[in-house]
Amino acid sequence: MIFRTTTTSRTRPALRRVRTTTALRPLHHRLDPAAVEEIPFRASDGVRLGLTRVDSGETDRPAVLLLHGHTASADMFLLPETRNLVDVLLDDGYEPWLLDWRGSCRLPYNETGQKYTYDDVALYDIPEAVAHIRGRIGDRPLFVVAHCIGSLTLSLSMTAGLVPGLAGVVSQGVFLTPKLAGRTSLRMSVAGELLKTRIDHIPVDFRNVGLWSKYTPLFALASRKASCPDPTCQILHNSAWGTGASLFVHEHLSRTTHNRLAELLGPAPLWILPHLRRIELARSVVRWHDTDHRYRALPPNALDAAARIDTPVLLLAGSENGLWLDSQKLCHEVLAHRQPQLDVEYTQIPGYGHLDTFLGRGAALDVFGHILEFLGERR
Ligand SMILES: [Zn+2]
């Protein structure tokens, strides 16, 4: 019997910790639980999403929909350890809504289940969430504040005319003219090569990966010249999931936020890279599906369709954005030249990187005031 046991353990494949349920991971917040309404929400292609309304107790407030970045989640706007964007919006008389679109780390799709492209987010997730919110708020104004890929995909929905009549949009990091660091774009083609190997996503939580695994070289690469000993921080701060970019200015994160990074940002799926690569090469948000008729509603090139934008836009970016560089400044210049009739502003946040514009311990002082000012002028 002893020998049989030994044989069994030798032949059994190593178990990988993957999520097999579409149940949403609980939100992490310090709001009154009675004020947090989690709405069962499924996109029309069958994918389960997360939609959350924060009840202020008043029914006449303008609504603000918050869109997270890829692999982040609604949690990025609810950090209990700082004065977060939801706190600030509630205090200023708004009703916050949070969408966990299919790239959220509260959902399993980045690791398991149905693969997707950003076309699906632009065609299904964002317009359908907006329609649902409109059904609830009636003719009250609806704003959107969007970060990173949440903003990039929103630009595709907007230029498709799928979310008309928004009261205003705040876009952080990137909008219609994505421009990645040269190093990042090179590494993206390297990562494309990884696709042909057994690797299908880049994890961030070293504790789940273990010391010796197929991911070890990625973590080793990220640790080069790192000043912080935390491997999860290294792969995000020094390497942005192996791309070589930097996601935040390190000293802007509180100790608590720093230690929660593996909860705030999930694994990055490598199968999304061909679409991201096409976008990056075009320097514009472009549709992935050229022949599938379901995606015909989306413009082939969002920048070329920018005349369809019917709402004021505030482009925000940290001066030290290590992922999208000065994409927002470029977007402002290009739109001012090509679509001078649009109401588009650009505000640079001195000293800030990318994610710290929302996760930073000082974001309420340094960043959120610009958002409130923009919303306040248009509510
Ligand atoms: Zn660190």
TrEMBL record:
Its cofactor is FAD. The keyword Chloroplast does not apply. Keywords: FAD, Flavoprotein, Oxidoreductase. Residues 62-154 form the AB hydrolase-1 domain. It comes from the Bacteria. The keyword Flavoprotein applies. InterPro entries: AB_hydrolase_1 (IPR000073), AB_hydrolase_fold (IPR029058), Cholesterol_Oxidase (IPR052542). GO terms for molecular function: oxidoreductase activity. Belongs to the GMC oxidoreductase family. This is AB hydrolase-1 domain-containing protein. It comes from Streptomyces albiflavescens.
